[in-house]
Write a structure and sequence with these properties.
With about 1100 residues, the protein is α/β, with parallel strands linked by helices. It is built from 46 helices and 30 strands. The protein has 4 domains: about 260 residues, no CATH class; about 210 residues, no CATH class; about 150 residues, Sandwich (Immunoglobulin-like); about 210 residues, no CATH class. The strands form 9 sheets. Strands 5-6-9-16-17-18-19-20 form an 8-stranded parallel barrel, surrounded by 5 helices. A 6-stranded antiparallel sheet has the order 21-22-23-30-27-28. It is elongated.
């Protein structure tokens, strides 16, 4: 039991069937109170026992008495005197249970114990002194008859009550009064019963000494075999400063005394727990999900339809969204059918296939009016305070929804709607027509409540009043007042409440203990299911038997979550009889039969996530641990949550709804920012098993948290273009690959092990896939850089066909579908950078995969496959060359290795220097033309400035190329033929510069006319920038036929360019020479296109000038 104060019901001794008191069995709450306090605090009308103790007929009477006391107390000057009814109950209970112990002692040990003790006292101090002492006690703590003057204290002491001398009753009360004053736990309220004045007037201490000595001489008693006064002090010895502790001691050690009254005793405990319930603003501490409690529960997952695993949801607060759309599109958009096609296209293109529209249903007008009365004149009703499940008229009704549904479905978007099963609006159709469906009572639970405000019903047949203190925010009542004018019946209906903070003041709580209420709610759920393929059940955990019981019909002694509900405690047998099955299991089975294509999504917390999907059968359940733990960087906790889940039942993982904010939480920007931390966690959301759910405004970076009553956004915000663009680059492509990530059959979580052997709990590393397609995700959710390896997965449970389970681990090699054999290489593309990475498969098998991650860095590897090395060892050479670094173009990198010799020779001829010289030559030529210097052709300038490659370099390249030509031909070329081709190529390449320099406008000599095909090319050159570079590229390509067989056409030269990717090598040379981007691409593209359209005239001209024989016919 907690050490916080918990309440216990005080029972008068007569409730235990004692012959010492009267024989009625009605329990009464009582406690000693001084006469002067009674008079000073104006509680003369309160009922008092014959022993001078206050009697409480029920919980309300105890609260009323506390209220009367508190009216006379100034909480500012005397905060310590403020009285709580629950504490009064607790003290009175202890007092009366001590009376019960006394009675049991008389019954089972010594029937004349108090008569003998009184005789001993009289012998010790005298009869007269004893009478004086007892009279002083009765006058200070008078019975009702003595207090109202019906009888004097002296006369009362001479009479009897139920055959027992009042002198004996007074002696017993005096003993217990003394014990109350000794009890440290009673000290805060000692002003009510302080006996200091009595002890100063009469010899109380001496009498107590005599009394205790007398009992010490009597037989011992109780579980510890003690004399009676020692036993009566046992609770305060066990827990001196805690009423709850003393009651717990009594409950555990004095069961025979409490007997069959335990239920009412525990009801009093609940009352005190309600008063002392702590309130902690903000979310509580995060807790790692564990599943020990589910070992005893049956497994009944609901089967997914084929579309369900790939759902990606985005939430929209409907009224706010429509207002934002109106602003964005510059026209009024007020109804569902007016939502633009462009907006639906945008959602679909981003990868969203489910649209959760918050606030579709007809709302409570009382909810809207309450908000107006509280100072918000433009507020709507809360989206979760409903009048009925009809599409709101202001949104266009069912017709507008149907039109939107058709357009959304055409784009692959399914609509999702809320269902709020726990409660309705306080003026709902059911509150008007079916009030018996709600939890209610006939009397106010607290005497401080008042209902004098505006009638909120909107229906002339009934009145509905909110408790007055809601309006000035001084209190949050648990009930509202409903009056049926026809029958004049008044009832107090409980507000919806989850026990975590304040009641929801615009709602009425449905009573799920009533079969008719459960059936009515199920009918409404089916109505929603037949209109929406996805239903989100709001606050679903409240209707689970465990929590509905805890909140509304607690087990005796376990109440305290909702004020006054401890009074309605039920024993287990009765509760189970009235609610035999889980409501949600019945709902799931109903929907499986009548609406089988509906995805049921539960908002459920309180460590019930696994229970909701595995046992109750919901398709999906909220996973708040994802948001809370990753926001706080409680990475160890979240990794442990994943581990615990997959070690119990991996199928639970794929049914989680992961989110970074929801309507009840701060925005994603407020919790995660906009930088790498946000995008790392968002990547986890997009790539972990389950259902990713994006909040309203999350992608746009909006900072405003939209209340459920908002009609519009109050902040003037526009989408953060940088944030949206980064989503488009990094997140949306992943959403379109949810088939890779949503399942759990191939999901493996890995420990990221650092060089020292320690696991870095800040790193999330996991693989997943579908079929043969695999993915690997790494994310460092911390500021610090880290490095480590992943090798073997964390354990998980595999279900066997016979229903058994066994724990498994798999290696990374197995998870990625690799062989791990020698001569094979892991190939994967990192999504963010676009770089390809290579790792030796055998090294990955033996040592794991090494990674280094900056703070909050995230890497997503896709297109994972294993490549076998060729006979030349190209893959091995590339892997060694990169040494863990990525390459932007894997094909090009492999070519660079395979054709390294060829490219070396080519770059020696047409490398950076070639393009630098070309640029310099043409620049000098243009300058001289402008200055009036003697005109000279660009070709001549090129020769003079060393642009033309020397024949030795050309020949060297030709020889190297000859080796690669042999591979192309499939047979070696004779040395004589090779040398012939070398000479032809070198001569042709050298002279091609002069022939083609005239094509460029910048290089043409004055008066030179370009005939034929050259004129066509020259004309095209004039239309593009970078003509000089285009000519330079074409010059390099035109000499390639010299490497081929005699009379090879230029089309074959282009094929050679493509095969060897020589255009790429030219672009690299141009980039090295400072020619970047589109200019280099245009130059090579023009040159390749020119090869394809060269006519015989151009060919003859070039060949003639190069000395090569033409094959023109």
């Amino acid at each position: 039991m907690k050490t916080a104060n918990v309440s216990v019901l005080t029972i008068r001794f007569k409730a235990f069937g004692s012959t010492v008191r009267d024989h009625t069995v009605t329990p009464r709450y009582e406690f000693h109170i001084r006469k002067d306090i009674r008079d000073a605090y104006d509680v003369v009308d309160a009922p008092f026992s014959t022993g001078g103790n206050i009697i409480f007929a029920d919980f309300y009477e105890s609260r009323l008495f506390a209220t009367k006391l508190n009216r006379k107390i100034n909480p500012t000057t005397h905060p310590e005197r403020v009285v709580k009814a629950g504490k009064l109950n607790a003290m009175a209970l202890i007092d009366e249970l001590l009376h019960a112990v006394c009675d049991m002692y008389r019954e089972s040990v010594k029937s004349d114990a108090f008569s003998a003790t009184l005789a001993t006292v009289q012998d010790s101090i005298g009869v007269s002194a004893t009478t004086t002492l007892l009279r002083a006690f009765v006058e200070a703590y008078p019975s009702s008859e003595v207090h109202d003057g019906t009888i004097s204290a002296v006369a009362w002491l001479k009479t009897e009550t139920d055959g027992v001398s009042n002198r004996l009753i007074a002696l017993e009360e005096l003993l217990l009064l003394r014990l109350a004053n000794e009890n440290p736990a009673f000290n805060p309220f000692s002003f009510l019963f302080d006996d200091a004045e009595l002890r100063a007037a009469v010899p109380v201490e001496k009498v107590m000494s005599v009394l205790e000595a007398a009992f010490l001489a009597m037989p011992a008693f109780g579980p510890d075999n003690e004399d009676l006064p020692t036993m009566l002090r046992a609770p305060m010895r066990a827990s001196p400063y805690s009423l709850a502790g003393q009651l717990d001691f009594i409950r555990r050690h004095w069961g025979l005394v409490i007997g069959h009254k335990m239920r009412k005793v525990l009801g009093g405990v609940d009352m005190l727990a309600e008063e002392d319930k702590p309130f902690f603003p903000g979310p509580g501490p995060t807790r790692v999900l564990s599943y020990d409690h589910l070992e005893r529960e049956y497994e009944r997952f609901s089967e997914d339809r084929d579309w369900m695993p790939r759902v990606v949801m985005i939430a929209k607060s409907t009224l706010v969204w429509l207002d934002q759309l109106s602003t964005a599109y510059g026209r009024q958009i007020r109804t569902l059918d007016a939502i633009p096609d462009e907006e639906l296209d945008n959602l679909a293109n981003r990868g969203f296939n489910s649209l959760w529209l918050i606030g579709l249903w007809e709302r409570s007008q009382a909810s809207r009016r309450i908000k107006e009365l509280c100072g918000n004149p433009e507020a709507a009703a809360s989206a979760y305070s409903l009048f009925d499940y009809e599409i709101a008229n202001e949104l266009g009704g069912w017709h507008a929804l149907e039109e939107l549904r058709k357009r959304a479905e055409w784009r692959g978007i399914r609509l999702a709607a809320d269902m709020v099963p726990n409660h309705t609006g306080i003026d709902s159709a059911w509150v008007r027509e079916r009030p018996d469906l709600f939890i209610q009572r006939d009397s106010m639970p607290f005497p401080t409540y008042s209902f004098s405000g505006e009638n909120l019903s909107g229906d002339s047949r009934i009145g509905i009043w909110l408790e007055d203190h809601y309006y000035d925010r001084r209190d949050a009542a648990v009930v509202f007042k409903r009056v049926d004018f026809a029958s004049n019946r008044t009832s107090y209906v409980y507000h919806g409440n989850d026990g975590t903070s304040m009641p929801w003041n615009d709602t009425a709580q449905i009573d799920f203990l009533k079969p008719e209420a459960r059936e009515a709610v199920k009918e409404r759920i089916l109505h929603v299911a037949k209109n929406f393929p996805i239903i989100r059940f709001d606050a679903a955990m409240i209707m689970a038997k465990k929590h509905f019981r805890r909140l509304w019909y607690p087990e005796p002694g376990h109440g305290g979550d909702i004020a006054s509900r401890g009074e309605c405690a039920l024993p287990n047998e009765e509760f189970s009889a009235r609610m035999p099955e889980e409501f949600w299991r019945e709902v799931v089975d109903m929907c499986a039969k009548d609406a089988p294509d509906t995805l049921l999504l539960a908002e459920a917390f309180w460590m019930m996530e696994g229970y909701f999907v595995r046992t109750l059968g919901m398709h999906r359940v909220y996973n708040s641990a994802f948001m809370n733990m990753l926001k706080n960087k409680e990475n160890r906790k979240y990794r442990e949550t994943i581990k615990n889940t997959q070690e119990f039942d991996k199928d639970i993982l794929k049914r989680f709804v992961n989110f970074m904010n929801n309507p009840d939480e701060d925005t994603a920007v407020a919790q995660f920012g906009k930088d790498d931390h946000y995008f790392g966690v968002c990547t986890l959301m997009a790539t972990l098993p389950g259902l990713p759910m994006f909040g309203h405004g999350q992608v746009e970076g909006y900072t405003e948290k939209y209340g459920m009553e908002y009609r519009r956004a109050y902040k003037d915000e526009t989408p953060d273009s940088w944030l949206v663009e980064r989503h488009e680059r990094e997140i949306f492509p992943l959403l379109k690959k949810r088939y890779l990530f949503s399942g759990v059959d191939d999901f493996l979580l890995f420990d990221f092990v650092k060089a020292d052997g320690q696991v870095d709990e800040d790193v999330f590393a996991y693989s997943n896939g579908s079929g043969g397609e695999k993915a690997l995700v790494l994310f460092n959710n911390a500021w610090a850089r880290t490095a480590g390896r992943i090798s073997v997965s964390c354990p998980y449970v595999r279900k066997k066909p016979d229903g058994g389970k066994e724990q498994e681990r798999r290696s990374l090699v197995q998870g990625l579908g690799l062989t791990g054999a020698d001569g094979r290489f892991l190939v994967m593309r990192e999504q963010r950078s676009g770089l390809w990475y290579l790792r030796c498969s055998q090294d990955v098998r033996n040592h794991g995969l090494f990674a280094m991650l900056e703070g909050f860095q995230c890497q997503v590897f896709l297109d994972i496959h294993e490549a076998a090395d060729d006979k030349l060892g190209t893959w091995a050479a590339l892997c060694e060359r990169q040494d863990g670094r990525g390459v932007s173009d894997l094909t090009a990198a492999l070519q660079d290795v395979a054709l390294e010799g060829l490219y070396s020779g080519w770059s020696a001829v047409f490398g950076k220097e070639y393009f630098t010289a070309i640029q310099s030559a043409f620049k000098a030529h243009v300058t001289k033309k402008q200055s009036g210097a003697p005109k000279k052709s660009a070709a001549a300038m090129a020769v003079e400035t060393g642009v033309l490659p020397d024949e030795q370099s050309l020949a060297a390249f030709a020889r190297i190329a000859g080796l690669f030509m042999s591979d192309i031909a499939g047979a070696s070329i004779a040395p004589a033929e090779t040398e012939s081709r070398v000479k032809t190529y070198a001569s042709m390449a050298s002279r091609s510069v002069s022939a083609l320099a005239e094509l460029a406008p910048e290089g043409r000599s004055a008066g030179v006319k370009v005939p034929g095909a050259q004129a066509v090319l020259a004309g095209r050159l004039r239309m593009i920038p970078g003509a000089v570079e285009a000519v330079a590229c074409l010059t390099a390509f035109l000499s390639l036929p010299g490497l081929l067989e005699a009379d090879a056409p230029y089309a074959d030269a282009r094929a050679l360019v493509d095969r060897w990717c020589l255009d790429r090598k030219l672009r690299e040379s141009m980039q090295a020479a400072g020619i970047h981007g589109d200019e280099a691409w245009r130059a090579t593209s023009f040159a390749k296109a020119a090869l394809g359209i060269l006519d015989e005239a151009l060919a003859a001209s070039v060949i003639a000038r190069s000395g090569r024989k033409t094959s023109a016919k």
